[in-house]
UniProtKB/TrEMBL annotation:
Phylogenetic classification of the source organism: Bacteria, Bacillati, Bacillota, Bacilli, Bacillales
Name of this protein: Metal ABC transporter permease
InterPro entries xrefs: ABC_BtuC-like, ABC_TroCD
Pfam families documented for this protein: ABC-3
GO cellular component terms, A-Z: ATP-binding cassette (ABC) transporter complex
Length: 292
């Protein structure tokens, strides 16, 4: 497979996994948690490096997931004690991200782990860091990791699909039916953290946030069915990845930044032309109503 195709495949895997998870984030009105976790995982990565002094390995994934879960727990803890949800999110993630940045600047900073890399990622390096896989040959490590995470996310979504649907739309009903709402919440936060961490090294925090929120927000304008929304969100994530890559090649600019920009273009088109909630459709209905 060519160099460009590995980049496109890796970015598409990010779009697929983030798009599926992002649909539930949007329905649960937790979009800003994506921003919080995508930044706070930096602290987990830095702490894992300080303990092991190695920049790759399962310890980095574990550290980042723990940081993501800690973010969710702290946000919930502050909110339960009277702090508004959005304020809790803002305080927790900015504090944890700032601690991570300070640690990088004072103890860790090097060419492979710095603040710019954390924010923007470096997807152009993905095809060079390969591992040997039986029957598949050499494939980029990030592509393998993202493939495994995507399969895990799809598996968890499928086996708990009914629970996700009920807890997302009506948590009170879910609790009355005996569904462990709190447990489902933290399973979901683990899934968000895992997805974020898998994409973080390849594409950086900015694209992770864009891919978690914007394709799902676009899909929400097209359908009222959860299953269709998830599929559309995943599709929009892949389309944004491919479109963003070619925009970056055309303008000779950041690939991750262009992919994040492409998610905005997809949302704009959805906002204008979706059949039910699109601006053009609403104007048409108003014009038809006025004529009648």
């Amino acid at each position: 497979m060519s160099y460009a195709m590995w980049i496109l495949l890796t970015a598409s895997l990010v779009g697929l996994s983030c798009g599926i998870v992002g649909a539930l984030l949007i329905l649960r009105r937790m979009a800003m948690m994506a921003d919080a976790i995508s930044h706070s995982v930096l602290l987990g990565i830095v702490v894992a490096y300080l303990i092991t002094r190695e920049l790759s390995g399962i310890h980095m994934l574990i550290g980042a997931v723990i940081a993501g879960l800690l973010t969710a727990v702290l946000v919930q803890w502050f909110h339960s004690r009277g702090v508004q949800k959005d304020a809790s999110i803002g305080v927790v993630f900015t504090t944890m991200f700032a601690i991570g940045v300070v640690l990088i600047a004072t103890k860790v900073g090097n060419a492979h782990l710095d603040t710019k890399h954390a924010l923007m990622g470096e997807i152009t390096f993905i095809p060079w860091e390969k591992v040997q896989v039986p029957w598949l040959g050499e494939i980029p490590q990030a592509t393998l990791t993202l493939s495994a995470v995507l399969l895990l996310v799809v598996f968890i979504i499928l086996i708990f699909y009914k629970e996700w649907k009920i807890t997302s739309f009506d948590p009170a009903l879910a609790a009355s039916l005996g569904i462990p709402v709190v447990l489902m919440h933290y399973i979901f936060m683990s899934m968000v953290s895992l997805t974020t961490v898998a994409a973080f090294d390849a594409v950086g925090a900015i694209m992770v946030v864009a891919m978690l929120i914007t394709p799902a927000a676009s899909a929400y304008l097209w359908t009222d069915r959860l299953s269709i929304m998830m599929m559309l969100s995943a599709l929009f994530g892949v389309v944004s990845a491919i479109m963003g890559y070619y925009i970056a090649v055309w303008l000779d600019t950041s690939i991750s930044g262009s992919m994040a920009f492409a998610t905005g273009l997809v949302f704009l088109l959805s906002f204008l032309f979706s059949p039910k909630h699109g601006l053009a459709s609403r104007l048409h209905y108003r014009s038809a109503a006025a004529d009648s």
